[in-house]
Amino acid sequence: MAQAAAHHSHDHDHGHHDPQELKMLGFWIFLVTDVILFSTLFATFVVLRNSTAGGPGGAELFNMTGVIIETFLLLTSSFTSGLAVLAMNKGSMKGLINWLIVTAILGLGFIGFEVYEFVELVHEGANFGTSAFLSAFFTLVGTHGLHVSLGLVWMIGLMFQLKKRGLTPETKGKVSALSLYWHFLDAVWIFLLTVVYLMGVM
Amino acid sequence: MLDKIKEFASTFFVTGDPMIYGADVSIALATIGIVFVLTYFKKWGWLWKNWLTTVDHKKVGIMYILAAILMLFRGGVDALLMRLQLATPDVTLLHPEHYNQIFTTHGTIMILFMAMPLMFGLFNIAVPLQIGARDVAFPFLNALSFWLFFMGAMLFNLSFVIGGSPDAGWLSYPPLSELQFSPGVGQNFYIWGIQISGIGSLATGINFIVTIIKMRAPGMTWMKMPVFTWSVFSSCVIIIFAFPILTITLALLFLDRFGGGHFFTLDFGGNPMMYINLIWMWGHPEVYIVVIPAFGIYSEVISVFSKKKLFGYKSMVYAMFMIAILSFFTWAHHFFTMGSGADVNAFFAISTMVIAIPTGVKVFNWLFTMYRGKITFKTPMMWAIAFIPNFLIAGLTGVMLSVAPADFQFHNSYFLVAHFHSALIGGVVFGYLAGLYYWWPKMFGFTLPETPGKWAFWFWNIGFYVCFIPQYSLGLMGMTRRLSTYGWDTGWQPLNLVSTVGAFLMGIGFLFQVLQILLGIKNFRKLKDTTGDPWDGHTLEWSIPSPAPEYNFATIPQVEERDDWWAEKDKRAKGIFRKQPPIEAIHMPKNSAIPFIMSVFFFIAGFGFVFGWSFFYIPGLIGVAICMICRSFFSYDGDYYIPADEVKRTEAAIRGSV
Ligand code: HEM
Ligand SMILES: [Cu+2]
């Protein structure tokens, strides 16, 4: 950020603000709102988890092998997104891009498994409208999956921007925000794993 | 073929009611009129460049306020129709279904499309100026928030003439709002209108929190910050905790209706009571989201027009924050009668009563501020004073409602209707009107004429009591809310008639305000605010010319005191002048068309979801995505500099000299 500071320092005395700092704070607050969003979904799930209306429950449905592979993929991708930021801080564009590619592939794998799992469930006759429990399950897990998918689109777009613009304060800020977002999704997944799957099969 | 079109049109457009044909005609005429005027005076470019693509917080604020006043009119007409229907027994102006639609749209519009945007308008006008900033933290996002609100509101209003209005109440309780019991598209309009504008509200919350934390002028510590800004901060904190809950609640209801889910249905394990909990976890804090900024305005106005510092500034701030936190622990008082059990009810009854304490603190502070003050009775001050006795009534009846066992009597009666209107009109609307009068000169560069304003004030005020006081009695006499007609044998006729008269008095008050604005525009030159400080204000927004130049402050002020501008004037009177730093080039955000275009795509997507038309919602969603990607790719050159020379020239022109 030394470059950023140099670039903007003359602005400070006439009331200009470091845009990267503002954006980062804004992004943190956005994550707070996302936490509330997920909490609401979790609460809904917990209320409805036994409302299977005579249909199948978590114990019968969940395929834990798939879930464990998903967990492994996502946790690893969170780690590699950290490595991407480390490479960026070292000023290595190549390392950054490569680690982002690895992260994206792992994320894609996660989504692939999740979609497969959903399709399986539907084949077994456990679909979104079968019971309140399943509505809540698909919505909660699906919302997380949607977040991961959006993160992937963002990641790919960002790689193009990095190619075009190089490492500037702006692109660096975007990478930091993305990595923060990715770790956040990881944390949400841990809760999902516990509340939805582990407690579901217990 | 022709028959098919006819058949489609007769289900698509709402038909069979003269009022709706009237609305069709007036919408068509207004559209033609606007298009004609813009074309005739060659104003399209001007409109696009100065308004539709602007990211200037002051202009965004003005657009919010304009839209909100339009919505106040629509919601007000709804209210008058309902009151006409209830004026005497057996009136058949509105059929029961139509009455249901009207109270639903009235409530929704008043809270989400009138109070919220009016509030956001005032945030935009005042906050950056009060904290000595050139802008909000994210000007692009700010414009986007506005357009999302606007498109959401338009989508909601469209339901009146296309498809049919929602009719399950302003909070759309299931199972009534489920597909099974509300098969029409009205509920979908409700869901998407609110959802789209709700995203905007959430973004505004984030935006102003960052603005207030990061962009205060140097020297403005937290405890030197103007009270209104404090109130905005508290309100935004509530927004970021409450609005995600609303987003999810509406999304789940939509999934039930659209995707065959069973969150809130009666069958397959759904739980309607969960919706009621969720919606009030947003709904109760929402009331405080809109009222806390009004408290902020009262504090500013009362201290300025009493020529005194605000009494108990710190306790004011703490009280606001306490109210913000407590507002999340009271939601169940909206359904004491719905079987939660004695212990739960007791908890929520007590937490509700506790809110009366910080509120009481504030009222005493306002009274002490006025005590021995040199009060001038300008319109903003009149609204602020009128609020106090009224809020006492609203507060006392609120405490009565919070007594859980007693609520079994009041619940969903006209007593409740009277209570929440006292709070919402006497607290929120009066506050925003005070704010509007107060900041009007800062927005437009002239003050509004006082005489028609005073007429408006008295009509509104007297009308307000005449309308709502009888309703307390009606509630105790057993009249329930959402009732479309009643019989002579009930004995409710006289009080209802009085109440309707009161509603019309308020309507006349509104007309006086319109007249006031027109007269103000006509006598613009005479009413011009040349000082920039027509009320002898305390805070920084009054230290710059009216209307504020696009960059707000030519040089960023260095803040020393709590009421910095007031202190500064004192010093200047004593001949002590602060050294002004030299004027430098100013960094400004560029206009952008993306917020507007993206919101149009949101509208298209929302419209598609309302009717379940994939050929609308898929392109709409794709458009939204493309706009986001464009924004991300173009965000690198979103700003420019105004050269120092140009700033100097502008300042010289508006101030006469530098
Ligand atoms: C200007 C004068 C107003 C009048 C005469 C008026 C009148 C009414 C009437 C007659 C009802 C229907 C009561 C029922 O049948 O249950 C109603 C409901 C309601 N009003 Fe107003 N109103 C006014 C202003 C406002 C304002 C400013 C707000 C909010 C900021 C507001 C919010 C509501 C809400 C939330 C409902 C409940 C709707 C529902 O039951 O779903 N009103 N009003
Ligand atoms: Cu409440």
Automatic annotation (TrEMBL), chain A:
Keyword field: Cell membrane, Electron transport, Membrane, Oxidoreductase, Transmembrane, Transmembrane helix, Transport
Record's subcellular location: Cell membrane
Membrane topology per record: Multi-pass membrane protein
Keyword Transport: yes
GO cellular component terms, A-Z: plasma membrane
Lineage top rank: taxon: Bacteria
GO biological process, one term: aerobic electron transport chain
Location, primary (coarse class): membrane
InterPro entries attached to this UniProt entry: Cyt_c/ubiquinol_Oxase_su3, Cyt_c_oxidase-like_su3, Cyt_c_oxidase_su3-like_sf, Cyt_c_oxidase_su3_a-hlx, Cyt_c_ubiqinol_oxidase_su3, Ubiquinol_oxase_su3_dom
PROSITE patterns: COX3
Parts of the chain that traverse the membrane: 25-47, 67-88, 95-113, 133-160, 180-200
Keyword presence, Transport: yes
UniProt domain Heme-copper oxidase subunit III family profile: residue ranges: 25-201
Annotated function: Cytochrome bo(3) ubiquinol terminal oxidase is the component of the aerobic respiratory chain of E.coli that predominates when cells are grown at high aeration. Has proton pump activity across the membrane in addition to electron transfer, pumping 2 protons/electron.
Assembly information from the UniProt record: Heterooctamer of two A chains, two B chains, two C chains and two D chains.
Homology family: Belongs to the cytochrome c oxidase subunit 3 family.
Name of this protein: Cytochrome bo(3) ubiquinol oxidase subunit 3
Gene transcribed to yield this protein: cyoC
